[in-house]
Prior knowledge:
Strand content: under 5%
Number of helices: 7
Number of strands: 0
Helix content: over 70%
Number of domains: 1
Amino acid sequence: MQGDGEGGQVMVGLRRRDAVIGALVGAYAIFDSLVLITVLAALIVWLDPLGVFLGGIFVITLLNLACCRWLDGRWDRWVAAGMGRRVEARLIGMRDRESMQRPIGWITGGSTALFAAAAAVINPVLVIGTSRMMSGEPVGDRRIAAASLSYAAVVSTLYLLVAIAIRQAFN
């Protein structure tokens, strides 16, 4: 019986850890633009723009890889436990908007390039969640990597241009 109690405690610990990680992934999926805009624009304005641009691509890609792999591997458990309600609600709202119909088609269309394009426009975590919600199947590392890198490149480029414009305005 002692082993059963310890095993139960381990499962509760794993669920708590999944709940905490899931909350962080969900917060990142919902608030990533706000955080990335603030951090990247500030860094690019005060530091070497090329270094921040390249560092941004690297860091954002790694962050998205970690979040998307976690979500892809635990989607069923996370949603079944009710932990992904906010992200799921955002996905449903996003799916129903007319302006999102084309990117949603890219997510479900089959091509890795279009999947990455959808991630660049929307957000890789939300694209992975949308794919999992609509297909019920794991996305896989290839698509996760393409989505993560495309989003990082677009976001870093956008904020590089914004920061350059800010620098020019103050010079």
